[in-house]
Amino acid sequence: MLLKKYGLSLDIKREKAMHAPVMEFVQGDIGTCALDISIREMNDPVDLSELTVEIVFAKPDGTTVIQDLANGVTITDAANGKITCTLKTNTIAVAGKVHAEVRLLAGEKLLSTPRFAFDVRKALLNDEAIESMDEIPILQQLIADVQNVEGKQGPQGEPGPAGASAYDLWLTQGNTGTVDDFLRDIILGAQGPNIYPTPLTWSSLDPGQSGVEILEQIQCGGQVLKMPQPWLWLRGTTTTELIPGEMYRVSYYTRKDGTEFSDVEARFIIPYDGGSYDYVLGSEDGTREINNDWRLFTIEFRWQGENKRPQVFVQTNKASIDNPVYFAAPSLRRINT
Asked: Could you give the CA distance from residue 292 to residue 258 in angstroms, rounded to a whole number?
């Protein structure tokens, strides 16, 4: 059987993939899409003999797939840093741009390569609907282990008081999101609760001028904010104080309509007396330009202001009635460093 296979080189000391080709796979293809990847350090091969290798894929719908050595990834030449990954159907289940990075693990140590991306083209004919879902092998194995535990049943005890689930406790700590968000926090966590004002509805935020519109459309679990003009703003106050000297991560899912503008940016503003902290968010592929597909934009910063609950603003630099910009699922979290 023929394979659609692309080769690329990832240098762990560079920001982007080297000589990466334009790669396209087709939604629904099974067992025929592959990547040949060479891991290098300043043009010298990285020896993978003592390492575990996995690849994280972030899909356009916000779900994540991790493929590892038990799940489609093969080390083909350890001494020369070469691996092959046969993409799972779930990895290419959603049409659009998929972003990925290779993770090299040795015990508790982790090293990530530069990110790369490929396009998934929508198939003209599908035999059946393709379900896109998160796929994290460690979590799935833990669930399977719990479900498969069998033992001798003991005597029936006295009923105890109803307790809160782990998910309920996670919510009481100020987090927001679905059970999937909770599970993803366990595996990928190391972040504080989301302190952005009403991140799922935008309802507590105050529009700076007329024209800002909150839509009924749902994206990434929350309502969509539409901005038909540049430099409009929507402001609100964080739910807790920002701590001076601490690191924070802010993110939005965002996209635009139309082709009139280029270099369209997602901006996050924190004003103070006499000025403001202005941040331009970047996408997972290292660019700052919003395009016509929903993508996650994020930036990390160290808070230099006072210990207080500041107002925060969402903005874009270019938009029009025919070329609006959309935002969804805002997040502002303290990073545990």
From this structure: 7
Phi, psi of 325 (to 5 degrees): -120, 140
The H or E element containing residue 89 is: none
CA 3-63-46 angle, to 5 degrees, is 55
Q: Distance between CA 25 and CA 29 in Å, rounded?
A: 8
Kindly write down the DSSP assignment for every residue of 39-65, as one continuous string: EEETTEEPP-TT-EEEEEEE-TTS-EE
In three-state secondary structure terms, 297 is strand
3-class secondary structure, 138: helix
Given the candidates 1.10.10.10, 2.40.30.20, 2.60.120.260, 2.40.160.20, the CATH classification of the domain at 206-334 is: 2.60.120.260
Residue with tokens 């070329």: 323
Angle between helices 179-188 and 137-147 (to 10 degrees): 110
Domain ranges of the chain: 4-121, 206-334
Question: From CA 171, how far away is CA 44, in angstroms rounded?
Answer: 47
Determine the Cα–Cα distance for residues 121 and 113; give it in Å rounded to an integer: 25
**Pairing status of strand 247-256 against strand 4-11:** unpaired
> What is the Cα–Cα distance from 277 to 143, expressed in whole angstroms?
43
Is residue 144 classed exposed, middle or buried when 0-12, 13-18 and 19+ CB atoms within 10 A define those classes?
Answer: exposed
Contacts for 154 with CB less than 8 Å, ≥ 6 apart: none
* Tokens of residue 14, six digits: 């560079």
Q: How far apart are CA 98 and CA 80, in angstroms?
A: 26
50: Cβ contacts below 8 Å, ≥ 6 apart: 106
pLDDT digits (tens, 9 = 90+) for 58-97: 888 888 899 999 889 999 999 999 999 999 989 999 889 9
Name the residue type at position 277.
Answer: Y
Q: What is the CATH number of domain 4-121?
A: 2.60.40.3350
Using the 8-state DSSP alphabet, how is residue 130 labeled? P
Query: What tens digit of pLDDT does each residue of 170-215 get?
Result: 666 666 666 655 655 554 444 677 888 877 777 666 655 567 888 8
Contact 308, 241 (CB under 8 A): yes
